[in-house]
Write a structure and sequence with these properties.
The structure is a homodimer.
Chain A (H helix, E strand, L loop, with lengths): L1 E6 L16 E2 L2 E2 H11 L4 E6 L3 H9 L6 E6 L7 H6 L2 H4 L4 E5 L2 E3 L16 E6 L13 E5 L2 E6 L7 E9 L2 H11 L5 H10 L3 E5 L5 E3 L3 H13 L8 H18 L6 H21 L2 H17 L2 H8 L5 H30 L3 H27 L11 H13 L3 H22 L3
Parallel strand pairs in A: 1-4, 1-6, 4-5, 8-12
Antiparallel strand pairs in A: 2-3, 6-11, 7-13, 8-11, 9-10, 9-11
Helix pairs in contact in A: 5-6, 8-11, 9-10, 9-11, 9-12, 10-14, 12-13, 13-15, 14-15
């Protein structure tokens, strides 16, 4: 399935020098985000209609490797309205169903999932949001009135309405018939053609209430969109420390880093080097170094979230990145325990610290190993039990170092991790 | 797709008390092996025609949970010939394509893969083996003469022949027409119906040359079949020590254990307990204990192959078994290193053994971890590089303990495993 993106309009309410589709938004331009979202959902080809400052947009997109085939159509009459722009794509798309998107609407890529499925009655369909309170700028939104599940009117100034048009459409070639008719009558907006389809009873609705989407039209909506994007970076698998502490800080770091050239793998390596440094501090054994090392460990733990956040924001997550990150994490975990054990030993000598350190290392490792094996064998994640993901383990280490209780730290890690591994091994059986 | 198994004949040349389909063969009866092979290849339902000592076979199969739906047909006229037995299944299978198998033929389950695919011309097809030298008892085999890819004659006593009938058929309902005709003419063998199809140009051939199959008719063929089954237990991923040493011994142990009630998981646990014992020996630190521990480690390494071998022989391999085995292996690896370090330390004290032990443990763990992560992320195995699978690592430990060189053993393990992990992390990038 192909997509049609309307990126010809002006968007005069944003205070910026770029044309609206090129609005920078956390490391990518708005239109790049739309294109990468399409790619993520399996769309391999898109047609982009440009108008206002057309060549800038085309040039910018051409120099960027998007991994999706782009065809550009220039519409010199863009000022008339977006219906005219959509009609320009007729020669390319008139024989197929396609997705129609606005070049200034940001959305959660998952919103496209129910859309790409063909409907039985061969009607064009509009994505609607029924949660009017969640619509960012309701006054400016295109409203839809619905009766018994059927759309009966559309427009910005409806008095009675039940939902809002999200600016995404599943189109059948019929849309071009409607556009041809309305444009020839001097009605140049896409909404005019949609209204025509409604009157002919040829429009379906698809309810995507609950999914995020926003029409980026003002500075305020741009700011809100950025915040929502950053909020979406948390993962459902995040542990408690990650959720309550790390993510809150890492998002701010990510917001800065994503605008730079730093790659996610570079961030993984920096977080690892911080752990190397803190392990050296730990190995010195005196309390002031333990304190510094503990703080560094927690900071590295926070930074450890940024690599994935940047990758997801830029749509460049890779299997290799996840692989590298997890290998570095295991070495980091080991170095911390070795550093702590060595630092304790040079001041206190004796067997105990090595024995406890060994069992802490074994527990931490087998815990991570069961996660990986479980995933490899059963192709799903084990998520119940004691929450001992890395955020929690590093937090235990940081606190233990700061309060200078190495043996107790090792004991806690050993008991919790090994107990949890045994629990998993027993319960997985059933 | 359903299967039809002919298990009505007598098989008088085997010196045993059981009817032929109940011949014990490494923990399962011959007909159970056939049924589990079908199940492994996705067949969910089979029709079994019995005759000679019918009730014994039915009773035996009914008391066993095969996980495949079985329907039994008793053929009182079984002594006439197997064509009569096959014809008995007509009321059940006359409207569908099905697999036809002999209840006394053992085969590599993979032989069924090209069979289950329907052919275009709607002909019945016979599986053939063109490698006449590999046929176990060529004299007794059913031969097929082929001209220009088309079968032209079939029979035990053909003078000119190009291949041998493996006793497995992809049947269309046409087979019942052929059987009805030949049986009514007093020709009671399945081969008669196949010959009829050949004369009518309604038989296809499917070449499965290279796949193992055998008609179990004599004590000699039974013995050969057992040997081939045991040989098939080696895995393509086996390391050098496994291939050259462990498998050669583990097969003999498995051959004994598979006839008992011992489960694969019990074997995993016994192998683990042997490692616990050897770690206790190692922890005592004196050479005589190291020697004993080293030998025990190598024996446990051999036994570690038996759990999977028994599981595969009995068709009871499970995700949980693989999970449990790998978790126990990681704890075993850890205990060995801890035992060796402790045993060395009580006699020599000092930091060095703990430091080296730590890095050996880290290397061994991260090595196993990269395997699991690689599999989870890329859904394939990393198999290049230094061969450091568990067979090799335990061999290094066993030799190191026997020659009483703990520090060198740790050093070798640390350097090799960590080097290999780094190599993988770098090369996986490309």
């Amino acid at each position: 399935m192909r997509a049609l993106i309307l990126a010809a309009g002006r968007g005069s309410r944003l205070q910026q020098s770029e044309p609206k589709p090129l609005t920078p938004l956390l490391g990518l331009t708005l239109i790049e985000r739309i294109i990468f979202s399409l790619k993520q959902k399996g769309i391999a080809e898109a047609v982009v209609v440009t108008g206002y400052r057309s060549s800038e947009i085309i040039e910018k997109l051409k120099e960027r490797e998007t991994g999706i085939k782009l065809t550009f159509i220039e519409n010199p009459e863009w000022e008339k309205g977006n219906g005219v722009s959509a009609l320009r794509a007729k020669p390319i798309l008139e024989n197929e169903d396609f997705l129609l998107l606005m070049g200034d609407h940001l959305f959660d890529p998952d919103i496209l999932e129910p859309v790409s499925k063909k409907n039985d009655n061969d009607k064009t369909a509009v994505l609607i949001d029924r949660d009017l309170n969640s619509v960012f700028d309701l006054e400016d939104a295109t409203k839809i009135q619905i009766k018994d599940g059927v759309p009966v009117d559309i427009g910005k100034n409806l008095e009675n309405y039940d939902a809002v048009d999200c600016g995404i459409f599943y189109c059948t070639p019929e849309i071009f018939t409607a556009l041809g008719r309305t444009v020839s009558e001097g009605k140049y907006q896409l909404t005019d053609a949609i209204q025509y389809l409604i009157y002919k009873d040829r429009l379906d609705i698809r309810d995507v209430t609950g999914r995020f989407w926003i029409d980026i039209d003002t500075e305020k909506s741009l700011k809100y969109a950025k915040q929502r994007l950053l909020d979406s970076l948390s993962k459902t698998t995040d542990g408690a420390i990650s959720r309550l502490l790390n993510r809150r800080i890492s998002k701010h770091i990510t917001r800065q880093l994503v605008e730079t050239d730093i790659t996610p793998n570079m961030v993984s390596i920096i977080a690892f080097l911080l752990i190397v440094l803190s392990s050296v501090f730990f190995a010195l054994g005196e309390w002031v170094y333990l304190l510094a090392g503990g703080i560094l460990v927690q900071f590295s733990s926070i930074l450890d979230g940024c690599d994935g956040e940047i990758a997801r924001l830029r749509f460049i997550g890779s299997g290799y990145g996840a692989f590298l990150d997890s290998i570095l994490d295991r070495y980091a975990d080991s170095l911390i325990i070795f550093g702590l054990a060595y630092g304790y030993w040079i001041h206190n000598e004796g067997l105990l610290v090595w024995a406890l350190g060994f069992f802490a290392l074994i527990g931490v490792f087998v815990f991570s190993y069961t996660n990986a094996r479980y995933e490899a064998i059963f192709e799903s994640s084990e998520s119940r039990g004691i929450p001992l993901r890395r955020d929690m383990r590093l937090f235990i280490v940081a606190i233990g170092a700061i309060i200078n209780q190495i043996l107790i730290t090792f004991l806690v890690l050993s008991v919790l991790t090994n107990f949890e591994v045994i629990r998993r091994t027993v319960t997985t059986r059933h």
